[in-house]
Amino acid sequence: MRPRNLAEQVADVIVDGIASGALGPRQRLVETDLAQQLQVSRVPLRESMKMLEAQGILESAPHRGSHVADFDDAKIDHICEARVALEKIALRDAMNVYRKEPERVARLDQIVAAMERAADVLDWTAISKADLAFHREICAASGNDVVITLWETLARHVLIVFGHEIRSEQDAAGMGPQHRRVRDMLLTAGLPALETEIARHITRLRNRRKAGAERRGERA
After folding, report:
1. CATH number of the domain enclosing 155
2. What totals of helices (H) and strands (E) does the chain contain, helices first?
3. What is the phi/psi pair of residue 68, to 5°?
4. CB atoms < 10 A from the CB of 117, how many?
5. Which residue numbers in the chain have pLDDT < 70?
6. Domain extent at residue 100
7. What is the pLDDT of residue 170?
8. DSSP 94-156
9. Edge to edge, what strands does the sheet with 28-29 contain?
10. Which of 26, 49, 68 is the last residue of a domain?
11. Among 68, 97, 119, which residue terminates a domain?
12. 14 part of a folded domain
C-alpha cells in the first residue's frame, strides 16, 4: 500500500464526515470554510474535492459549487453489487496465499480483535474502519493490483454505506464472529462456498433492511 498524500487524507476526512452524518446528503461544501476547519490550504482541498467528484461522492454544478451526493437505495445496491464482484475475484487468489502462508492470517486476527474491542463500546466508526481493514487485507493478499486499486476507490463508498445502516448492539456483538467465519473459510472452504459466503456477508444488512421495508409495506 503506497502512502496517502495530503489530498487523499483530506478526501478521507470528508468521507468520514459524510459517513458519520456530520455532512448530510446534498449539503453544500464551501471551500473557505472547509479549509479553515481542516487547517489545510485550498490547493490540496480542491484536489481532494475533484477526486471525490470523480468518484461520485461529491457533485458540482455551475454557480452552485460542490455538494454531497445522495446515496439512495439504487446507488447503495450498485455499490454492494460492485463490491461483491471485486471481492469474489480477490478471494480466488487470496485463499491460496493464506493456505500457503498461514502466518498472514495473523493480520486478519489482529483486525478482528480490534473490531471486537470497538464493538464492546459500540464505537461504530472504529467498527466500520476495522471492517474495511479486514476486507482490504484480503484484497491485498490477492496480489491483484487492479482489484486493489478499484477496491480502494470503492472503500470510500462502502464506509458511507455503513453510515447509512441502522445497526444495534446485537449487530455489534455479531461482527467478530461473522468475520471469523470468513477467516476460517479462507483456510478450509472451497471457492464456491467462499464466494457464496462473501456475497451473503456483504449484503446481509442491506437485505435485512429491504426485508424490513417490505414487511412494513405489507402492514400499511
Report:
1. 1.20.120.530
2. 9, 3
3. -70, 135
4. 14
5. 1-4, 166, 209-220
6. 73-219
7. 87
8. HHHHHHH-GGGHHHHHHHHHHHHHHHHTT-HHHHHHHHHHHHHHHHHHHT-HHHHHHHHHHHH
9. 28-29, 65-68, 58-61
10. 68
11. 68
12. yes
